[in-house]
Amino acid sequence: MLRDLSENIQSVFDRDPAARTTFEVLTTYPGLHAIMAHRLNHWLWNKGLRWFARLLSYAVRWFTGIEIHPGAQIGRRFFIDHGMGVVIGETTVIGDDCTLYHGVTLGGTSWFSGKRHPTLGNDVVVGAGAKILGPIEIGDDARIGSNAVILKSVPTGATVVGVPGRIINSTPDELNARRSAMARKMGFDAYGATRDIQDPVIDSINKMLDHIHLLDEQVTQISNILKETGTAESGVIPPLETCELVSLDGVGMPDNKESGPEPSD
User: Fold this and answer.
1) Three-state secondary-structure class, residue 161
2) What's the pLDDT tens digit per position in 26-58?
3) pTM
4) Are 131 and 112 spatial neighbours (Cβ–Cβ below 8 Å)?
5) How many domains would you assign to the chain?
6) Counting C-beta atoms within 10 Å of the first and last residue's C-beta, which end of the chain has fewer, N or C?
7) Which residues of 12-44 are buried (b: 16+ CB within 10 A; e: fewer)?
8) Do strands 166-168 and 159-161 pair parallel, antiparallel, or not at all (unpaired)?
9) Same domain, yes or no: 33 and 127
């Protein structure tokens, strides 16, 4: 118990830069209180004292805002940051070194007994408000984005965002450069707006940019051949109108100074 408490305290310092002292962590972190109480509740559950375990878990939910069913199996160095609104179901299995943020639900989708909640591997991070539902498996080192809804298993090392959850894959540097060049030609930098945080919709637009890039190269080659053979004159392709993708940090935002009066104080 003391070793587990020591590891959980250290995990707070490792994953929360706001943590300052051990005393502060012990007295003000509801995630730590919830997981330590769950260790006792889980032991009582396995000993057959299930009503008492449920009663204690109910009391812990009242004080911490975190609901962990006594039957859930949770590994070492588990960290719940902020914690309010976290729900972990009975047949949930969580590996070592996992991190959950507030509003996360590890829930079931069936009224039948048996395995009906998710299984998380090691080093999994689940963002605020995410819902992982059903007897699915989340692979080691997976990252679940905030407010994502996960209904299918996630492979090892994947990053999943959106509703329903979609896997985001990394993009080679060569392909990034090609997309950036085509985006500048079209009047906006689509990939630049999502270099740090990828988005499935923008990713689809980037794939269209790849397609347009190849078409542009082929049209240019055909036009040059026709011009050299004298079959037809090479016309001038009119430039595209400016297209912009508005990002939260202001990248690519249009100038709206003339759209209306300045707000008054």
Assistant:
1) strand
2) 999 999 999 999 999 999 999 999 999 999 999
3) 0.63
4) no
5) 2
6) C
7) beeebeebeeeeebeeebbbbbbbbbbeebbeb
8) antiparallel
9) yes
